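Question: Send over one sample?
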Amino acid sequence: MTKHYTLSQLADHLGAEIEGNPDQPIVKIATLLNASDQEIAFLANKKYRSQLDSTQAGAVILSADDAEFFSGNKLICDNPYVAYAKLAQYMDTTPSAASSIHSTAVIDQSVHLGENVKIAANAVIEAGAVIGDNVEIGAGCFIGQHVRIGAGTKLWANVTIYHEVEIGEHCLFQSGSVIGSDGFGYANESGEWVKIPQIGTVIIGNRVEVGACTSIDRGAIDNTVIHDNVILDNQIQIAHNVEIGYGTAIAGCSVLAGSVKIGKYCQLGGMVAVNGHNEVCDGVVITGMSMVTKGISKPGIYSSGMPHTTNKEWRKNIAHLRNLSDFKSRIKALETLTEQLNQTDK
């Protein structure tokens, strides 16, 4: 059933100022372009300001600077995008990952379950695990031996948590994520691979979110560590002994090789790769498809991915790239000749 809100209820929740009808009914959030008269939209980017003239939204969230451009019902706040995020949480209709402890869940008798834990069908929780209060474990999840999961954490269906992993409070794991699988550790003896058992684990802090099909490997000897308030997108590979600092965000399909250390408040775009044993300091932004081959010690924005172009132009540029060494030699020879001619003129 659709839940109805009044504009005044939403304003109270956000601490926003109302201009217009406080009793305006709101049923959901929509874009400026597609909103109906019982939906609320938001303006967080000035390039969409022109849509205020034509929007059919019942109300709009916007800043004080933009309020004069809209004559309808509005909620005025300092940061409309953050307000949108908080309102989306408040009005969220996403169902629980589980509603009770299902009869088909397999839970070892030594497992410690907190209060109000919910476990869906066919989940497996092995010996010695400790599950905090209000944890939700979705259908088909696997929780290995001696895992610890903090209060309020939610696992969607088919999440795998290997043995001895430690997870903090109020984390979210999307379906298919794998936490604590073996790191890629092998020695080579006369052409034969000798597996190195990975005896570390994974330590995950509070309020960490992990995207669908993202893998976080356990440490080889020391632990892989994900600090509080980190957000990881879908299909990311975090190798053994990686450490990711507080508040860092990493977009989809990125790869952090073994023993990489990422600082606090960093942002890595999609398909970024960081070579093993490199350290990235706090406050670094790395744009999509960049390859980090050496450490970064100064905050700032870094890029290396090549933007797309026509195939014809790309082939021409690659041909020039392959001849860089030859160009360098020819330029050096010209510089030497120029210097000799200048000395002759003197």
In short: The first strand starts at residue 5 and ends at 6. The chain is about 15% helix and 25% strand. The chain has a mean pLDDT of 96. The chain has three domains: 5-91, 106-302, 311-345.
